[in-house]
Write a structure and sequence with these properties.
By secondary structure, the protein is mainly alpha-helical. It has nine helices and eight strands. The strands form four sheets. It has a two-stranded antiparallel ribbon. The longest helix has 31 residues, at 105-135. The chain starts with a helix and ends in an 18-residue tail after the last helix. GO terms for molecular function: protein-cysteine S-palmitoyltransferase activity. It is found in: Membrane.
């Protein structure tokens, strides 16, 4: 399961941002020829008025990527290493040489969990030899071959501490429906920054990543809800966000309601 989760995290197919978010040439020319920031902001507002977005920049304008020439969907960010915008980007992980995002976040968490269990297993099997080494009970006939087991214990201990901290941190993020980027900088809405802007309760937050079926929670197959573009919001935000009018929300995505009443995305092949 550890190797499978690692493989899925590395080779998960990260789909590009839908074309409807990309500025056509006519709009791009208007944007580039605009004489002021207010004019650019108006152009982007008009283009994004029918897009299902609720997040804003610090100045309150539409989030726009100059490199990809598109309006960023909610929770999407540009990865400078991958040179593209990624849906629900968490971070770019050098250990998997891939962006951790909507498409492989479940796999990444399972990878951390199974790697931690593997380190605990190695430590527990090497512990008796470490105790003998500590007490000096190896004896003169033990040979140098036993010392690599002691070294293995220390390596697994160090990795176990690191993985345990990282796994615990991401469990906290899942429970609060945040990404690493959102934990460092709270997402901006029309009403201001809100670190819990996407949180719909710990259990529903968990199911948004792992799906409805408990039998598949610990298996690295894709069971996350949604499409990575539209996210349910807490009920309090539905009343305050003008972009979430019932007509537009019904048109583009699911209304915020308990996840067990919604259908999960189809599972990919094992």
């Amino acid at each position: 399961m550890f190797a499978w989760s690692y493989w899925r995290t590395i080779f998960a197919q990260i789909k590009p941002i839908p074309d409807k978010y990309k500025l056509p040439e006519s709009e791009l020319e208007k944007l580039l020829s605009a004489e002021s920031e207010d004019a650019q902001r108006t152009i982007l507002e008009n283009f994004a008025k029918d897009l299902p977005i609720v997040t804003r920049t610090m100045s309150g304008s539409v989030r726009y990527c100059n490199r990809c020439v598109l309006v960023k969907p909610d929770r999407a960010h540009h990865c400078s290493i991958c040179s593209r915008c990624v849906l629900k980007m968490d971070h770019h992980c050098p250990w998997v040489n891939n962006c951790v995002c909507y498409y492989n976040y479940k796999f990444f968490i399972l990878f951390l969990g199974y790697a931690l269990l593997y380190c605990i297993f190695v430590m527990s099997t090497c512990l008796p030899y470490f105790i003998k080494f500590w007490k000096g009970d190896f004896g003169p006939t033990a040979g140098a071959g036993r010392y690599h087991i002691v070294f293995c214990f220390f390596v697994s201990l160090m990795f176990g501490i690191s993985l345990g901290s990282l796994f615990g941190y991401h469990c906290y993020l899942v429970a609060n429906n945040r990404t690493t980027l959102e934990a460092f900088r709270a997402p901006m809405f029309r009403g201001g920054a809100d670190k819990n802007g996407f949180s719909i309760g710990a259990y529903n937050n968990f199911k948004e990543v792992f799906g409805n079926s408990p039998n598949l929670w610990l298996i690295p197959v894709f069971t996350s809800f949604g499409d990575g573009i539209v996210y349910p919001l807490p009920a309090k935000d539905e009343d305050t966000e003008s972009l979430l009018s019932s007509e537009r929300w019904d048109r583009w995505g699911e209304r915020a309601r308990p996840l067990d009443e919604r259908e999960s995305s189809s599972y990919d092949e094992l």
